[in-house]
Specification:
Elements lengths: L1 E11 L2 H4 L6 H6 L13 E6 L10 E5 L7 H9 L2 E9 L14 E3 L2 E9 L2 H10 L14 H11 L6 H18 L6 E8 L4 E7 L8 E3 L2 H7 L14 E4 L10 E3 L4 E6 L2 E6 L6
Antiparallel strand pairs: 1-4, 1-10, 2-3, 2-4, 5-6, 6-7, 7-8, 8-12, 9-10, 9-11, 12-13
Length: 280
């Protein structure tokens, strides 16, 4: 469906990952070997927390309906800012129209969210899902994607207080709604979520056959594995990236996030937790 990456660590020029890596996000927009669609040219989005911003700051966004591979504004922007936490997403539209309001990531206050996948049977479930969004949030849904509705459901279900729990409640509600409509496997996807400090990356589908998701090995460990790799000097010790597919072919540089798992990235490193609905 789409490809995405999320970075957390010392401030970094986003172009290092979005443009310059061997299998950068822009390269994946043209050719994603692990993706369902090889080409992801139906727009893109970039969201970032500015360097030096205080906790709870609102992130910045840049969306375009142009293919990422020929957008000069993306090149200019990502080469001239530095950010300690940023999201990048290239889109392969699966039905909703190509328009800026349908480009990921989505933002609410200090939160960023993006999704690779789909809600099967969304047209059947849409009315029930949208009406479950808190009334105060309803006017903020500007696009037509299932992903944006999912994000506002998670906010409704308590994202600010318990991000993992809110996402579990969201998935449970989607699956219960789908079951009532005769949809057997409504949830499919990898999700990225951040409040500007912590990064959560979810891999889950009702059928337990979820889109690919990987994260990098910690930089100090990589330096031990590859002491002569000059490329690693660009990154600080806390640098971490979660990706739809690896950004290079270096053996051991990326590990796959297991099925039905949430990876949690903080300054202290990585941790994994099982993820499913509360009934699991």
């Amino acid at each position: 469906m789409c490809r995405w990456l999320a970075y957390s660590g010392e401030p970094l020029k986003p172009a290092v990952l979005i443009l310059d890596a061997q299998h950068s996000l822009v390269a994946q927009s043209l050719n994603s070997p692990l993706g369902v669609e090889t080409v992801n040219g139906d727009g893109f989005g970039f969201g970032w927390y500015p360097e030096g911003s205080a906790a709870g700051s609102v992130p910045a966004l840049f969306h375009s309906i142009e293919p990422a591979w020929h957008d000069e504004n993306l090149r200019e922007l990502t080469n001239n800012i530095a950010s300690p936490l940023f999201f990048g997403h290239v889109r392969a539209a699966a039905g909703p129209p190509i328009q800026q309001t349908n480009c990921h990531p989505f933002r609410y206050e200090n939160w960023l969210f993006m999704h690779n996948g789909f809600l099967d049977g969304f047209s059947l479930m849409k009315r029930d899902l949208v009406l479950a969004v808190d009334e105060s949030l309803f006017p903020l849904i500007h696009g037509t994607t299932d992903s944006e509705v999912m994000f506002y459901l998670a906010i409704t279900f308590g994202l600010a207080d318990d991000p993992i729990g809110a996402m579990a409640k969201t998935v449970q509600f989607i699956e219960q709604t789908g079951e009532a409509k005769g949809v057997h496997f409504p949830m499919q996807g990898t999700l990225a979520l951040s409040d500007g400090a912590t990064l959560w990356a979810f891999r889950y589908s009702t059928a337990h056959r979820t889109r690919s998701l990987f994260h990098s090995v910690e930089i100090p460990a990589l330096r031990e594995m590859y002491p002569d790799a000059e490329r690693l000097q660009v990154f600080g010790d806390k640098a971490k990236v979660v990706v739809s597919e690896p950004l290079n072919d270096v053996p051991g540089a990326f590990v796959e996030v297991p099925e039905s798992t949430v990876a949690i990235l903080t300054d202290d490193g990585y941790s994994h937790q099982p993820f499913g609905t509360p009934a699991d």
